[in-house]
Amino acid sequence: MSTAASAATAQLVLTRPRSLSTAVTHYCPGCGHGIVHRLVGETIDELGLQERTVAVWPVGCAVFGYNYFEFDGCEAAHGRAPAVATGIKRVHPELFVFTYQGDGDLGAIGTAEIIHAAARGENITVIFVNNAVYGMTGGQMAPTTLAGQRTTSTPGGRDPGRAGYPIRVSEMLATLEAPRYITRVSVHSPAAIRKAGAAIRRAFKCQVAGLGFSLVEVLSPCPTNWGVSPREAQRWLEERMVPYFPLGDIKMVAEVGKL
């Protein structure tokens, strides 16, 4: 078959989601944020939410998130994204509102905000990217840093006797009555990415249906601050992070299961 004939019969199977901009991201090679961005964009397109979506961006690696999407967004002070999202959603309940936060933004300085937004059952969605380290500020220990994990502030490895144990944020929030859907996924492999996309879709549908608070925790590689190659980071995530932060639904009410 000639080149011209091949081109004529070719079918487009993948393209950039309309909700993603054409901007080149600033993320390091092997970072999981780009994958999560695409999953969010695909889901926004699939559910037809682009024209009424407002994202609340964090302080952290995803601080420039508003440059990478073709829908409205705003910046929140460090850790305050759930509070900002609450205000937007209460004033404009017709909008689709989600926060996008890292483990430092959500699990450290923003602990109070995420706990109380979840306890109130605010009808917002939270995308929580957990890479077990402070990525933007130099690779310091985060609330989710594993025991023994070396960071710039724990060069000998995290010592639970001095720094405590890693916080399982999703399990903690799942003890509250109000949250409707809390799940943990990963982006370390194609199969895991497909499951992550399905979880984000269900969480977004939860808000659209007016069911209440939902959170998707995404385990994500950080090769730069872990000091490994992108391929090694995927393996490290699977072998080290997943055993401590097990994947799967942590809380899901019956109504969400039907979505």
Explain what the structure shows.
- The chain has 259 residues and is of the alpha/beta class.
- It has a single domain (25-149, 165-257), classed as Thiamin diphosphate (ThDP)-binding fold, Pyr/PP domains (Rossmann fold, 3-Layer(aba) Sandwich), CATH 3.40.50.970.
- The chain has helices spanning 3-9, 33-46, 81-91, 103-109, 111-120, 160-163, 169-174, 190-208, 223-226, 230-244, 254-257; strands at 53-57, 72-75, 96-102, 125-130, 181-186, 214-219, 248-252.
- The protein has a seven-stranded mixed sheet with strand order 2-1-3-4-6-5-7, sandwiched between helices.
- α2 packs across α8 (190-208) and α4 (103-109) crosses α5.
- The chain starts with a helix and ends with a helix.
SSE order in H/E notation?
HHEEHEHHEHHEHEHHEH
The main sheet comes to: 7 strands, mixed
Identify the CATH class.
Alpha Beta
- What percentage of the residues does DSSP assign to strands (E)? 15-25%
Strand line-up across the major sheet: 2-1-3-4-6-5-7
Distance between the terminal alpha carbons, to the nearest Å? 45 Å
Counting helices, strands and paired strands, the structural category is: alpha/beta
Unreliable spans are none
> In percent, how helical is the residue content?
25-40%
In CATH, the topology is named Rossmann fold
Structural domain tally: 1
What is the assigned CATH homologous superfamily?
Thiamin diphosphate (ThDP)-binding fold, Pyr/PP domains
Number of strands: 7
Give the mean pLDDT.
Answer: 94
Number of helices: 11
Shape: globular
The CATH architecture can be named as 3-Layer(aba) Sandwich
Using the CA coordinates, give the radius of gyration. Answer: 18 Å
